[in-house]
C-alpha cells in the first residue's frame, strides 16, 4: 500500500467532497488522466459504467441533433 502525505490526502478528500465521489475515485481518475496524457493506459480490466454514467450518456445522446429527419418507416422503405 502506498502511504500518502497529509497534504495529498487532504486535497483528495476536499476534491472528493466537492465532487461527491470517494477519495479513491478522485485519485484513480487523476492517475488515469495523467497516464493517458503520458501516452499509456492503465492496466487491468475496463471498469463497468455506473447507472449514473449510463443515464448521463443517454442524456448526451438524446441531446444530439437528428442527422435524418425522416421517420423510421421512411428510412426502412428506402432500404428495401
Structure, described:
The protein is mainly α and 80 residues long. It has one domain (6-63). It contains four helices and no strands. The protein has helices spanning 6-19, 23-37, 51-63, 72-79. The longest helix has 15 residues, at 23-37. The protein is elongated and about 65 Å long.
A few lines on this structure:
By secondary structure, the protein is mainly alpha-helical. It is 62% helix and 0% strand. The radius of gyration is 21 Å and the shape is elongated.
Key descriptive features of the protein:
mainly alpha, 4 helices, 80 residues, elongated
Task: Describe the SSE topology.
Layout: H1 6-19, H2 23-37, H3 51-63, H4 72-79
Helix pairs in contact: 1-2
How many individual helices?
4
Order of helices and strands: HHHH
Residues in β-strands, percent: under 5%
Q: Percent range for helical residues?
A: 55-70%
**Low-confidence regions:** none
Number of extended strands = 0
Coarse shape? elongated
Q: What is the arithmetic mean of pLDDT? A: 90
Structural class: mainly alpha
Major beta-sheet overview: none
What is the distance, rounded to the nearest whole angstrom, between the alpha carbons of the first and last residues?
61 Å
Rg calc: 21 Å
Compute the number of structural domains: 1
Amino acid at each position: 500500500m502506498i502511504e500518502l502525505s497529509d497534504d495529498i490526502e487532504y486535497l483528495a478528500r476536499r476534491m472528493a467532497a466537492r465532487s461527491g465521489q470517494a477519495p479513491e475515485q478522485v485519485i484513480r481518475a487523476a492517475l488515469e488522466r495523467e497516464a493517458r496524457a503520458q501516452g499509456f493506459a492503465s492496466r487491468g480490466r475496463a471498469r463497468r459504467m455506473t447507472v449514473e454514467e449510463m443515464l448521463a450518456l443517454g442524456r448526451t445522446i438524446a441531446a444530439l441533433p437528428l442527422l435524418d429527419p425522416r421517420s423510421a418507416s421512411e428510412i426502412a422503405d428506402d432500404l428495401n
